[in-house]
């Protein structure tokens, strides 16, 4: 196939046909509002579906992380950029309409969650103190691109609409993962854990996704009587996939998400201060429980408390990183993606041996961690305590916004609009207690940005809805149907 495409005549023919289809799609989106919305929803669906980092078909080659892959060839890079450009071109009529108010919307999010954008800025600025500035710049630019796309989704989509897209994308992941785990075990089974990973790169992220899928479909089963049998079925199927992934942390995550779902009606009756208090207590308890169970599951289940409480080796790793690595660059860190660089050999900042690897004790042997196994510690390694402080302020601001949605009592506010920001916020926290995916180009950062932007603009949507009834021509932001469609 590759040799065939290198033939100038064949290549010209393919480009010509592709251009014709591209123009036809552009024209279709231009004149049909319904089809424009369909293509935009399809793009968002594909974007969120493939952001966890899928390992099958074409997905590894079109994932944004492939743009800074050190082994990326020039033709592959050009093809990926061309694919992105084609998607933007097709959607440009829709984007032009939806972005008329971008200055006003951006100003609102900058004021309400300025620390989010400050954090993205410091990632870009970390190029200046990274030992590999070119690589840090590429990764930061890709991360910024993902942030902008996620911010657009947070601006344009209601939480109700987003919930529907998320549920079906997660259901598709579960179904395809089951197929690969059962029919193509060389791809679908994680050889280290002998558990399901499906179409995903590892079992733990897959388990976290299934915990979220189970919670969202469970809430749909309780709140929507239509096709309840389908919601219950997909809930049970997601739980089966979660159990097959054999991740203790993900099971604790599901319990936490379920607790919030069950307590949603109670929390909605509280005022903001009491709801904030309850959520903070829940987070403290949940974080502690998640770490203890994840770190000591075998000791708890098999031998009570008689085994070593650093069973998995994460605790010594965290202690070592704080005392030996973070202490060397405490304020600004090593630069975005500037710490774990095994390809540099002995120059790898993470290394503690001449072979360029970080060796840590675990039980009777040693292991080489590929990351900090904690998303928040990863931030400190990359941009220091200064960057972590900026992120923490953004984190608190976003939590406040999620709680405000949780206690929203307007009659036009649906239950999923209230609960989804908090569900996604918890999804951001719990997996990152034991794995490092917070500042990776994955769905976790997408969800975080969507929550931050969506909760910032939520009060504006409500005000606009009131002003539109008085003056139909008023539109400093898209009307509510533009946000929620």
From TrEMBL:
The chain crosses the membrane at residues 6-26, 38-62, 74-91, 103-129, 135-153, 165-183, 203-222, 274-293, 385-407, 419-436, 442-460. Keywords: Ligase, Membrane, Transmembrane, Transmembrane helix. GO terms for molecular function: ligase activity. Coiled coil: none annotated. InterPro entries: O-antigen_ligase-rel_domated, WaaL-like. It comes from the Bacteria. It is a multi-pass membrane protein. Residues 235-392 form the O-antigen ligase-related domain. It is found in: Membrane. This is O-antigen ligase family protein. It comes from Phormidium pseudopriestleyi FRX01.
């Amino acid at each position: 196939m590759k040799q065939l495409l290198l033939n100038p005549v064949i290549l010209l023919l393919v480009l010509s046909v592709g251009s014709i289809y591209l123009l036809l799609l552009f024209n279709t989106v231009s004149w049909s509002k319904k089809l424009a919305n369909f293509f935009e929803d399809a793009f968002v669906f594909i974007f969120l579906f493939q952001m966890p980092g899928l390992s099958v078909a074409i997905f590894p080659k079109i994932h944004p992380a492939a743009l800074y892959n050190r082994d990326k060839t020039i033709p592959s890079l050009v093809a990926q950029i061309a694919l992105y450009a084609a998607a933007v071109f097709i959607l440009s009529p829709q984007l032009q309409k939806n972005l008329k108010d971008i200055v006003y919307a951006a100003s609102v999010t900058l004021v309400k969650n300025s620390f989010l954008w400050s954090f993205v800025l410091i990632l870009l600025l970390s190029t200046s103190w990274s030992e590999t500035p070119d690589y840090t710049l590429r990764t930061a630019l890709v991360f910024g691109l993902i942030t902008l796309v996620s911010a657009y989704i947070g601006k344009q989509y209601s939480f109700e609409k987003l919930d529907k897209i998320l549920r079906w994308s997660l259901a598709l992941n579960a179904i395809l993962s089951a197929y690969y785990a059962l029919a193509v075990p060389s791809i679908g089974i994680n050889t280290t854990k002998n558990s399901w990973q499906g179409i995903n790169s590892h079992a733990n992220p897959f388990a976290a996704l299934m915990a979220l899928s189970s919670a969202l479909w469970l809430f749909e089963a309780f709140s929507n009587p239509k096709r309840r049998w389908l919601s219950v079925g997909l809930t049970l199927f997601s739980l089966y996939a979660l159990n097959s992934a054999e991740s203790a942390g993900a099971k604790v995550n599901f319990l936490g998400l379920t607790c919030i779902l069950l307590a949603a009606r109670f929390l909605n009756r509280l005022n903001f201060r009491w709801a904030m208090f309850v959520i903070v207590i829940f987070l403290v308890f949940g974080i502690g429980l998640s770490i203890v169970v994840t770190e000591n599951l075998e000791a708890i289940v098999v031998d009570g408390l008689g085994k070593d409480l650093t069973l998995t080796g994460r605790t010594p790793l965290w202690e070592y990183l704080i005392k030996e690595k973070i202490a060397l660059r405490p304020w600004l860190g090593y630069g975005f993606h500037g710490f774990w660089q095994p390809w540099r050999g002995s120059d790898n900042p993470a290394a503690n041996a001449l072979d360029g690897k970080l060796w840590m004790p675990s039980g009777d042997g040693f292991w080489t961690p590929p990351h900090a196994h904690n998303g928040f510690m990863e931030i400190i390694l990359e941009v220091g305590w200064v960057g972590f402080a900026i992120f923490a302020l953004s984190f608190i601001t976003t939590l406040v916004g999620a709680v405000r949605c949780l206690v929203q009592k307007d009659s036009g506010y649906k239950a999923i609009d209230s609960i989804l920001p908090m569900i996604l916020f918890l999804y951001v926290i719990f997996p990152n207690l034991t794995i490092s995916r917070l500042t990776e180009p994955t769905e976790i950062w997408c969800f975080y940005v969507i929550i931050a932007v969506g909760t910032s603009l939520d009060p504006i949507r409500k005000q606009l809805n009131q002003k539109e009834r008085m003056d139909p021509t008023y539109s400093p932001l898209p009307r509510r149907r533009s946000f929620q469609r």
